[in-house]
Amino acid sequence: MTVLVLTRPQDATADLVIAELNERSIPVHRLDPGDFPEALTMAARIGPHRAPWEGVLRGQHRDVSLGDIRSVYYRRPGAHRFHPDMSEQDARWARAEAQAGFGGLLYSLPCLWVNHPHHNTWATYPPVALAAAARSGLSVPRTLITNDPVEAREFVSALPGQVAAYKALGTAHPSDRDDRPQALWTTQVRPDEIDESVRRTAHQFQEWVAKAHEVRLTAVGPSLFAAEIHAGSDAARLDFRADYDSLTYKPCEVPERIARGVHMLTFTLGLQYAALDFLVNPQGRWYLIDVNPNGQWGFIPDLRAPITQALADLLERAHP
User: Is the peptide bond before 52 cis (omega within 30 degrees of 0)?
Assistant: First the structure.
């Protein structure tokens, strides 16, 4: 029985898990769905006496039978790549067919997914994640999602200090130079900085929480791993992703109430894995601000090995 790892060729996070599985002599098959159809072939059948799908994925170096896949680690697969001679119109059609056929075949596998891409997509939407967190008993900052500048100014004006955190709703913005996506870090915003451009799309404004530190909590099945994140620069205090070099980390305990809420949240969202970001105020109250169903975890040195081992345990046991 094989663990199927779906990711692009360069993925240091997946490399950690694959190395751990190899150390345990667990068969692993790594492939990038982006190789389909140019460098990856599939053939699968279903019929009156075949259930589920039976078939094989044929890569450049190895094949894997669909029936041999015990679990799937869905990391960061690349987009389907097509022959350069195809027209743009034909490539759009081929991409949709590849997603429906190749993607649909993979998504139908009756095994453990960490995580199933449909659950990943659902959990990535902040309105879904924040509502599920609140229902699970976790504290979330007061949040407004709107395209109405009047509503936005009124919301921010009513907050303590008349200041809010503005953050993108999980998407990257194209660069002015080369159209490649670039991250939009969290910024502070005041009422007089909100203009009519808000009308052009959805925006998220959150109560600014004065924090003692942040916590990255990683859930792997029933196991929870948490570390305090202490910012060492002004940029990192606004958004720790903006300056990793200034950060220091300290493993910490998870309060029982938070643990109960996280278990309920991951169950509600159908996640076997999640990286959750909390702000902790000076009084010790935890506020959930982000759910990352495919978030990174290797950047916290003391938790790198325990999380790697927990993921390998989960994929090896493979109980859907």
Answer: yes
**Residue among 277, 267, 320, 317 at smallest CA distance from 297:** 277
As given in the structure block, the two tokens for residue 40 are: 């990856």
Lowest mean pLDDT segment, chosen from 160-174, 194-208, 271-285: 160-174
If you count them, how many residues does the chain have?
320
Give the whole-angstrom CA distance, residue 236 versus residue 231.
Answer: 5
Task: Please tell me the pTM assigned to this model.
Answer: 0.90
| Structural domains present in the chain | 2-110 (no CATH), 121-125+210-296 (3.30.470.20), 142-207 (no CATH)
What letter represents residue 178's amino acid?
D
How wide is the angle at C-alpha 218 spanned by C-alphas 243 and 7, nearest 5°? 80
**286: β partners:** 280
What distance in Å separates the CA atoms of residue 84 and residue 305, rounded to the nearest whole number?
A: 42
Closest to 254 measured CA to CA, from 246, 266, 262, 245: 262
Q: What is the distance between the alpha carbons of residues 304 and 277, in angstroms, rounded to a whole number?
A: 17
Question: Is residue 67 over pLDDT 80?
Answer: yes
- What does the pLDDT read at residue 92? 95
Rounded CA-CA distance 73/241 in Å is 24
Please say whether the dihedral angle defined by the alpha carbons of residues 109, 315, 214 and 139, taken in this order, is positive or negative: positive
pLDDT band at residue 281 using 50, 70 and 90 as cut-offs: very high
CA distances from residue 274 to 63, 119, 216, 229, 251 in whole angstroms, order as listed: 30, 11, 10, 17, 17
